[in-house]
Amino acid sequence: MFTILFVCSGNTCRSPIAEALMRQAVYDEDLASKIHVMSAGLAANAGDKISEPARQLLSCEGMDMKKHAAVNLNTEIIDLADLILVMTEKLKEQLLVRFPFAGQKTHLLKDYAGIAQYGDIEDPYGLSLREYRVILEDIRCCIQKITNKLEGGQINEGGFGQRSCRIQSEGTD
Asked: In the predicted model, what is the mean pLDDT of residues 147-155?
């Protein structure tokens, strides 16, 4: 099974949103038997609940995250992951300082989605529900593009989504 790991700071906002959206996409594309999705935080307080605005937005999408408990990133989780997607360049740098062996499988989420020119996915913690919605839509755009890689590619030792990748440039969407 191919494992995708989403990483943010506290594992209460961005990475659980990405995890939930990717799980839904994997389910919708009938890839659940091939792909496992997880999330963790580089500075998480283990056991913290998902932020209330993130929970509300995901609930409106039909995703129940009440049982989500923050997980602090560690070597075991890194070892389980085949692909690690982080929310900001700074988080990627911090992750690679702590876990240098994860370099080849660690990518900035927007880079991997093919929309790197739009920068990082900033932390909405403490901001309004409206700001959370902007972040959710930003992450959804990335997940849709990555899902296109899944649909057009194959998951094997040769890479993830390597064959017939259908990611379109931002201007053609």
From this structure: 68
Measured distance CA(164)–CA(154) in Å, rounded:
9
Rounded-to-integer distance, Cα 63 and Cα 84, Å: 22
Q: Which residue has better confidence, 154 or 109?
A: 109
Rounded CA-CA distance 19/36 in Å is 10
Among candidate residues 55, 123, 138, 142, the one labeled active-site is 123
Q: Which residues contact 92 (CB under 8 A, 6 or more apart)?
A: 86, 106, 107, 108
Verify whether residue 8 is a known catalytic residue: yes
Distance in angstroms (rounded) separating the CA atoms of residues 42 and 105: 16
pLDDT, mean over the chain: 87
Mark whether 123 is an active-site residue. yes
Indicate the SS3 state at residue 28: helix
- Whole-prediction pTM: 0.87
Task: Please give the average per-residue pLDDT across 34-38, as a whole number.
Answer: 95
Residue 12 falls in which region: left (phi positive, over 0), alpha (psi -120 to 50) or beta: alpha
60 annotated active-site: no
The per-residue pLDDT for range 11-28, each reduced to its tens digit, is: 999 999 999 999 999 999
